[in-house]
Write a structure and sequence with these properties.
The chain has 4 helices and 4 strands. It has 112 residues and is α+β, with helices and mostly antiparallel strands.
């Protein structure tokens, strides 16, 4: 993301640095981002609000695993469930929409 990239946040406009810090605080890593064009087929945030910026959130190193192991309920939380909860919470904080493209791909094409 460029320093000028902004996302709408709970207190007006939150700069990319605030989003980066929030992602890192959850043990995750921002892996990249871009401003989608119409032909990128990124779903809108709402029917009247197109996506302005897409940020890929992922894992790099041991921080995510440490956080996962200390926060989850081993009897019920899988990594997918935990990461969905964390990423959806970040999206809500920044009044954004969390997308999980691999889930859509697997539903459409199957695991193999």
């Amino acid at each position: 993301m460029s320093p000028r990239t902004e996302a709408t946040g709970r207190h007006g406009t939150a700069h990319a640095q605030e989003l980066t810090e929030a992602i890192l605080a959850q043990g995750l890593t921002p892996r990249g981002g871009f401003q989608p064009r119409a032909d990128d087929a990124v779903p809108p945030i709402s029917p009247c609000q197109p996506a302005a910026t897409l940020v890929l959130v992922g894992n790099a190193g041991a921080r995510m695993w440490q956080r996962f192991c200390t926060q989850r309920d081993p009897a019920r939380d899988r990594l997918d469930d935990w990461s969905s909860q964390i990423i959806s919470g970040l999206a809500a904080l920044f009044r954004a929409r969390a997308l999980f493209p691999m889930r859509h791909f697997l539903r459409a094409h199957g695991p193999g």
